[in-house]
Amino acid sequence: MSRNSFAAEMIKSFVIFLTGGFIYGLIEILYRGHTHPSMFVLGGLCLLWVGGFDSFFRRVPPLWLQIILGGIFITAAELVCGMIFNVGLGLRVWDYSKVPMNFMGQICPQFFFLWIALSLPAVLAEDLLRAAFDRFSRSVREIG
Predict the structure, then answer these.
(1) Computed over its alpha carbons, how large is the radius of gyration of the chain?
(2) Total of domains in the chain
């Protein structure tokens, strides 16, 4: 990988990360009325990973599988972040302890299904962002 293509990949990933962070924060503000900076980071990482699942496989997995894997990944990431920020540091960023079938107040089935539903637009948005960057990079190379 050339130095320029590495830099382009880093910029592309950074923009996708920022997009995920902003969207996740906006969803939280609309749903709960507030958010926490750690959720910006979590949202950015989730968009990078969930949207980028297709690049981890030799063949692109079917969309339904990407969405299921997205729900699993986001739930696992939520558990890890919850254990760090809520349990470990006592920040109480969220609390699902009153939600039926929760695990330590950090994750619950209801939000797992929400994460599956949100994985569809995440996969599609990440694919669109990457395609837009690729088109832009090609047009810049053609000009130069």
Answers:
(1) 17
(2) 1
Are 16 and 51 in contact, with CB atoms under 8 Å apart? yes
What is the extent of the structural domain holding 101? Answer: 3-143
Instruction: Give yes or no for a contact between 121 and 114, defined as CB atoms under 8 angstroms apart.
Output: no
Interval 1-52: pLDDT, tens: 567 788 888 988 999 999 999 999 999 999 999 999 999 999 999 999 998 8
pTM for the full predicted model: 0.88
Which two three-digit tokens encode residue 15? Answer: 């923009």
Residue 55 has pLDDT above 80, yes or no: no
* H or E element, residue 96: none
Which strand (E) or helix (H) includes residue 90?
none
Provide the sign of the torsion angle of the four alpha carbons 63, 112, 18, 26, taken in this order.
positive
Chain centre distance of CA 54: 14
The reported pLDDT for the residue numbered 1 is 59
